[in-house]
TrEMBL record, chain B:
Name of this protein: GerAB/ArcD/ProY family transporter
Entry keyword Transmembrane: yes
PANTHER family per the UniProt record, alphabetical: SPORE GERMINATION PROTEIN A2
Family: Belongs to the amino acid-polyamine-organocation (APC) superfamily. Spore germination protein (SGP) (TC 2.A.3.9) family.
Length: 354, 363
């Protein structure tokens, strides 16, 4: 009798303690893969890209609505849909340029606070009106609509001239004194679904400038992202960067920060024109990278955004209140000496002139 | 072999449950740079009180604090054990309430709070009622076998996005670096250091252990204390980590593992740590009932344990929000300080006296 009672209690507990409270089955949830947020004078328009896979067809569904806050719009969409919108598996957030220029800090804060959206979610700026972009995606998608997700996956369609910026890095950029980010920019392509148009320089969550795809590649190399990027050298050759390593030495001379950086590049030769010597290729590559980088640095310096995290090198030299003024007082005066050292690891299947 | 390790393992894993949630938040709130200074201070505090406590316990021979104190003087026993009893009661309530809220914030946001508190109380009650302290220790061993591997895996991956330069400057050069001593949050995070060493004095003669192994176990905790604070700081920077409610858990959320089929490794960590917290709660329940039975009234555990858990649950229901809970925790630090300084000292003196008495009796 007692044993029986215990068993019954155990069975009741099994149901009570399972944690499946108010659970909604997966077929009653909509799992958007991308969310578009456009901003216009205090009101948000949200687009959700929901892949719907059934037995006989794979298609995507684009839903949009507008309101005064992101959460309000999502609730509104959820209300009007037959299933509940669940943002747990959201992979990409697209915002339009107007929103990026206005400043993302509030949007990011509500994402971080909500705990429904993972901090790993990719952040992307759309270089054209969002409605046009989503119409294009809807029209040109032939598969299950995950193109936009695959485009930014390191083990799928990502390539080294695209910036890679999860939401938490932008959150860090908003609060950190010495770290800013760049966000990839895309628009709908002509023959492909998506086309990269470079990346946006963000300062404290606000868009202040733009980098081209080539500059983004250099940015990735300098930040130590393991790239396999290809660089065209002065019409003589195309080389591939197989690995890059940076050594930095910082010093502070009368409130002027100086950084001596040495970039070690390991390259392989992809193709050559007019049989140039390896010495020439190396020399030209070094000149090219140095020049391009200095231009890039000046651009970033002018925008006042520390996208390379250069202030990180001076954390030991500056006090905390000084660091808080890093972007305004120190970064504009900063000097960078860049040295590029290259090693040609191999020249492929063909021998090359020494 | 494994039997001797039961107590040190329970010591480690109950601390692990406490380290990764509130402690980083409070520590980061209390100091702006060179966070290792407050961490080491807290750690040395833990080592000091444990050294005194274990020394005293060793002098008891194979006897329990309650027996020795009761034999010596009832008055002394009351003065020592009553604050401990009160402290444990408050700890039980606050832990259940805070961790229910943590579960709700991190992953079960639709589940009503009372059912989460029920979960956090029912399982420890069951462990204490059926296993007693021996069962509890065995459960600890089992939990560590089940969960330590996944925790270590996640902790190893937590270094994925770090930037070591965020730790700079390394050396404190400003008197402000020691201002954590006057910051109330710092005393709140001492809970992670001295929250659960008390049980060591109450488990003999039920479970035997060597004091040396516990001491080694507490040394093993040092890297965990450092990681819980430094991983968020190195990944996000101090200014950003300060904004977050649970910086360590957030940092774990940023880990990307391409080859793993699970998207959110945070779940492995959080669920394992919750199992450890349940063990901690059962330990507190056991201590409460044990002290009550031997010093106030010897009620049957079958009546007393459910009584304690129902009482805890009832009080938990009356706490309206997380802020109030943290305020209570702030006030509790006074009692915590008293208990963790006075109890080891009393135990040491009583131990000395007891040891001399035993020697005389043998002669």
């Amino acid at each position: 009798m007692k044993m029986m009672l215990m068993r019954m209690v155990a069975v009741v507990l099994l149901f009570l303690l399972s944690g499946c409270w108010d659970n909604k089955d997966i077929n009653h949830r909509s799992l958007p893969i991308a969310m578009g947020v456009s901003y216009n004078q205090g009101s948000y328009t949200i687009y959700l890209d929901i892949p719907s896979v059934t037995e006989d067809e794979e298609k995507i569904q684009i839903i949009s609505d507008h309101g005064d806050s992101i959460n309000e719009v999502i609730d509104h969409i959820s209300m009007n849909m037959e299933s509940q919108v669940d943002l747990l598996h959201l992979k990409v957030i697209l915002v339009d340029k107007a929103f990026a220029k206005h400043g993302l800090s509030e949007g990011i804060a509500s994402i971080i606070r909500s705990r429904y959206i993972a901090p790993k979610t990719m952040f992307v700026i759309c270089d054209e009106p969002l409605d046009h972009f989503f119409q294009h995606i809807d029209a040109s998608s032939t598969d299950d609509g995950t193109a936009i997700y695959d485009y930014f996956q390191k083990n799928a369609g990502w390539s080294p001239d695209i910036a890679y910026t999860p939401t938490w890095r932008i959150f860090r950029s908003i609060h950190s004194y010495t770290n800013d980010v760049v966000i990839p920019m895309i628009k709908s392509g002509d023959s492909t679904v998506i086309k990269s148009t470079g990346s946006a320089i963000m300062k404290n969550g606000k868009m202040v400038g733009k980098l081209t795809n080539e500059e983004t590649l250099l940015y990735n190399v300098f930040n130590g992202v393991n790239t396999q990027g290809k660089i065209e050298v002065m019409g003589h050759a195309t080389v591939q960067i197989v690995s890059s390593r940076i050594g930095n030495r910082s010093s502070l001379e009368q409130d002027q920060p100086r950084l001596r950086s040495t970039v070690h590049l390991k390259i392989t030769v992809m193709d050559t024109r007019g049989n140039p010597s390896m010495v020439l290729i190396k020399k030209e590559l070094q000149e090219l990278v140095t020049r391009e980088f200095m231009l890039l640095f000046q651009k970033v310096q002018k925008a006042g955004a520390d996208v390379f995290g250069l202030g990180q090198h001076f954390r030991d030299d500056l006090t905390r209140p000084q660091l808080a003024r890093w972007r305004t007082d120190y970064l504009p005066n900063m000097k960078v000496d860049l040295h590029v050292k290259t090693i040609v690891r191999n020249t492929g299947n063909l021998k090359a002139r020494k | 072999m494994l039997k001797n390790l039961q107590v040190p393992i329970v010591f480690i894993i109950t601390h692990m449950g406490l380290i990764f949630f509130l402690y980083p938040t409070d520590l980061i709130a209390s100091s702006k740079e060179t966070q290792w200074v407050p961490i080491f201070t807290g750690f040395l505090f833990q080592l000091a009180i444990m050294a005194v406590y274990l020394k005293g316990i060793r002098l008891f021979g194979n006897e329990n604090i309650i027996h020795v104190l009761m034999k010596k003087s009832r008055w002394l026993a009351w003065a020592t054990l009553l604050p401990v009893l009160l402290h444990l009661g408050i700890i039980a309530v606050l832990t259940v309430r805070i961790y229910a809220e943590i579960i709700s914030i991190i992953f079960l946001s639709n589940t009503p709070l009372w059912i989460l508190m029920c979960l956090l109380i029912t399982i420890p009650t069951y462990i204490v009622m059926h296993g007693g302290v021996r069962g509890l220790m065995r459960t600890g061993l089992l939990l560590s076998l089940l969960f330590l591997i996944s925790i270590l895996f996640v902790l190893a991956y937590a270094f994925q996005n770090i930037d070591p330069r965020y730790a700079l400057p390394l050396l404190p050069d400003d008197p402000k670096d020691f201002s954590f001593f006057v910051h109330p949050s710092y005393y709140k995070c001492l809970f992670a250091f001295s929250g659960c060493f008390l049980f060591l004095g109450f488990v003999p003669p039920y479970v035997a252990y060597k004091p040396k192994t516990v001491f080694i176990a507490s040394l093993l905790l040092l890297p965990l204390f450092l990681m819980a604070v430094y991983i968020p700081i190195l990944t996000l920077g101090e200014e950003t980590a300060r904004q977050l409610e649970f910086p360590f858990i957030f940092t774990i959320d940023t880990i990307e593992i391409d080859w793993l089929m699970f998207d959110r490794v945070t779940m492995f960590l959080v669920l394992s740590l919750l199992a450890f917290i349940m063990l901690f709660i059962s330990l507190v329940f056991w201590l409460l009932t044990n002290i009550f039975r031997h010093s106030i009234k010897d009620l049957k555990p079958k009546i007393l344990v459910p009584l304690v858990s129902v009482l805890t649950f009832g009080v938990c229901l009356f706490i309206p929000d997380l802020e109030t809970t943290e305020e209570f925790l702030q006030w509790e630090t006074i009692l915590l300080g008293y208990v963790s300084i006075v109890t080891p000292l009393v135990v040491l003196f009583a131990g000395r006296h007891h040891f001399k008495q035993m020697k005389r009796e043998i002669k």
